[in-house]
């Protein structure tokens, strides 16, 4: 099977890191048949990598890339908060995030 490979880019790198963060939160990839186990510490690690990448590329991104990174960072932060919020009903209920 030859999957289409996108061009290497900042957006592609952020997308890969985002997918890994979501998998670490227990969000299954569309091609997966089962839900992966949640590991919030690993999810936070991938989020932190995206933040480091954003900091290190400051002044070298397009406005579109900056907007996309800001949106990804915000959305991942909210999902991590959902994992650690008591009383939340989610697929990873009861799993906390280390800060």
Question: How does this model look, in words?
Answer:
With 99 residues, this protein is mostly helical. The chain has one domain (10-84). Helix content is 55%, strand content 0%. Helix 1 (10-24) runs antiparallel to helix 2 and helix 1 runs parallel beside helix 3 (63-84). The radius of gyration is 15 Å and the shape is globular.
For this entry, give a set of tags.
99 residues, mainly alpha, 55% helix, globular, disordered C terminus
Number of E-type strands: 0
User: How would you sum up the major sheet?
Assistant: none
How many H/I helical runs? 3
Give the rounded overall mean pLDDT: 83
Strand content: under 5%
Low-confidence blocks of residues: 88-99
Domain count:
1
Principal-axes geometry comes out as: globular
What is the share of helical residues? 40-55%
Helix/strand-derived category reads: mainly alpha
